[in-house]
């Protein structure tokens, strides 16, 4: 299985970092110009971006990528999977949170990906790794 991992320290308490990264709208900032829109709320009215929620990603009216939140453990872990994508056989995203100090949080973002076409996985993962590093740098400055 092909995978990437990005680690980033945020100079903020774990609950603040988790709150930021658990909202779909945050990824509009992190991955601009890609747009992210929640199209299905979770069943938890307190956390509409929680377990079961679905987000679409893309540009303008064309948002072919859909991801569903499958695990959300507050201040610990978020997992999501890609859904309804005929080009990708397997895609799992895991974001883990670790408190280093009261005002410093380590975020570890791991993505497993297997495309249906050979050699495509490595290309997609390389682009995702660059985008995540850049996006996390932007977000780290905002907290």
TrEMBL record:
**Phylogenetic placement of the source organism:** Bacteria, Pseudomonadati, Pseudomonadota, Gammaproteobacteria, Moraxellales
Q: Which domain of life is it from?
A: Bacteria
Any one Pfam family here would be Polyketide_cyc2
This chain's protein is named Polyketide cyclase / dehydrase and lipid transport
| UniProt source species | Acinetobacter stercoris
CDD domains to which the protein is assigned, alphabetical:
PYR_PYL_RCAR_like
* Stretches of the chain forming a coiled coil according to its record: none
Gene3D superfamilies xrefs: 3.30.530.20
């Amino acid at each position: 299985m092909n995978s990437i991992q990005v680690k980033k320290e945020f100079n903020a308490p774990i609950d603040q970092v988790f709150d930021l990264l658990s909202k779909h709208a945050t990824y509009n900032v992190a991955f601009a110009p890609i747009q992210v829109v929640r199209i299905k709320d979770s069943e938890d009215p307190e956390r509409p971006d929680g377990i079961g929620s679905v987000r679409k990603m893309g540009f303008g009216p064309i948002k072919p990528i859909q991801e569903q939140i499958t695990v959300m453990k507050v201040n610990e872990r978020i997992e999501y999977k890609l859904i309804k994508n005929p080009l990708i056989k397997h895609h799992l995203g895991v974001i883990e949170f670790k408190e280093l100090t009261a005002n410093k949080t380590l975020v570890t973002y791991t993505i497993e990906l297997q495309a249906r076409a050979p050699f495509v996985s490595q290309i997609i993962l390389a682009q995702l790794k660059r985008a995540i590093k850049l996006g996390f740098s932007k977000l780290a400055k905002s907290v």
